[in-house]
Amino acid sequence: MTEAKHYDVIVVGAGLSGICAGYHLQKTCPTKTYAILEAREALGGTWDLFRYPGIRSDSDMYTLGFSFKPWKNAQAIADGPAILEYLNETAAENGIDEKIRFNTRVRRVEWSSEKQQWTVVSKVKGKRALQRLTCNYLIGCSGYYRYDGAYQPDFVGQDDFQGTIVHPQFWDESLDYANKRVVVIGSGATAVTLVPEMAKTAAHVTMLQRSPTYVVSMPQVDTKAERLKKLLPEKVAYELIRAKNVMYQLLTYQLARRAPGFVAKNLVGEVKAAMKDGYDVEKHFTPSYDPWDQRVCMVPDGDLFVAINEGRASVVTDHIERFTATGIRLKSGAEIPADIIVTATGLELQLMGGGTLSVDGEDVNPGERLLYKGSMMNDVPNAVLCTGYTNASWTLKAELSIEYVCRLINYMDHRGYGVFCPRLNDPTVKRLPVVDFKSGYIQRAIGTVPWQGDRAPWRLHQNYLLDRRMFRHTKLEDGVLEFTAAQ
Question: Mean pLDDT across the stretch 446-458?
Fold first, then answer.
C-alpha cells in the first residue's frame, strides 16, 4: 500500500455533484486542498455512463444546471451529449478537472477520532497496490446507484431467446436496431426515452409495462426562457428562469400532494388530448397510484405520444409469463415477437461508490442510520452525503448541501473546531423511509440506505425553499450537531 497523501477535503465522484463541490470549495474555502476521486476514466457520472438512444435529462436544464454556470443551450430538456459538454466545460473553466484522480475506485473509508481524520483506501486501475489518502472532511458525491450493476430480474426462459437482450445501463453502441422489432420492458423515465428514439428507425417498438406511469409532455424549448435571454443580461435572465422553474416544480408537486385526484385527472386528460380517438388511455396511461407516489415522467414535445399515434410504437400493459425463442409470452396468452429486448428494469441503490465505512474500527451500516438535514448520517463525523431531490432537479439540493458544508468548514476554522458530528440523542424520533416513493428501486433498498426521521432536523423536506432556509440561514450549533476542538 502506498504512502498516504493528505488533503483537507476528499470528494468521491466527479459527476454533477462532484464538479459542483469542486467549484464551491475553491470559491468559499480557497485555502483548503482537495481531490476528487472518480472510479471511471472520465468525468460526468450518469451523463458519461449512459449511452442508450435518446439519453436526456428528465428535469429542465435551468435547474439541473449549476447556479453559477448559466445553461445557454436552447434545449430546456437536453440530450446526454449536451449535458456532458456542459459539465466538461464547467470543470475546465474552473480548473476542477485538474483535481480529479480518474480510475480511482474507493474500497473503504475509515475514521479515526484520535487523528481527527479519514483514511480513504482506493484501488487505482492498472496498479496492484492499494492507495491510501487522508483527509479532514469527506464529501460523498457518487450518486445513489451502482454504476457497475443494475436491477435485472431473472425472467423465465431468458436463455431461450435467440435475439439480443440489453440493459440501458450497459448499452452496446454497436447494436443495430434499424428495421428490427424491439420490446422495451419498463415504463419509467428510461423506457419513455428509449421508445420514441428507437422507433425512428426500428421496424416497431413495443413498451411492455406491468402497470402505467404518469407521463406528461413538456416543451423541449422553453419559449419564455428564450424571450428572457434576449431581453436581459445573461446572468440576470438565467437567475429569473431558474427561479421560475423552481417555483413551478415546487407548486406542481405541492398541488399533487394536496389534491392528487385533481392533478391525476388533469395529467390523464392531457394524454387523452394527445392520443388519437379510441386509444385506451385508461389501460395504458392511468396509474393506480397518486401523482408523485412515483416520479412523473416527462416526454419532450410529446414524442412518445407522436410515435404511438403514427404506429411506430405501441404500449402493452400485461405481465410476462416467459421469454421464448422469438419474443415474450404474456400471462394473457398473447406473444410479442422481438429481435431485441431492452430490459429498462431499473437501478440498484448504492452509497459512496460501494466503499465500506467504519468509525473508530466499527463498521457502519448505512441502513441503521438516520440522515441529519438529508446530508449526514448520525454518529459519522466530518462526512457529508450529497443527495438531490426526487420531485425536482437533483442539482438544486446537491448544491445547497455543498454550500452548507463549505459554510460549516469555515465556521469550524473560525471557532477552532476539528470535528462535527450529528448525534441522535432523542429516542422518540421515529424512523421513516428516506423517500416516500413506491418506486421499485426505492422499495428494494429499504434497510440498506439511511432513514429519515419524523421531525427536524432528521426530516427531509423535498422542498427547495425550506431547504434553502435550513442550509443557509439556520444556526450551525443547533444542539444536534456536536463539535469537538481541533487537536
Answer: 85
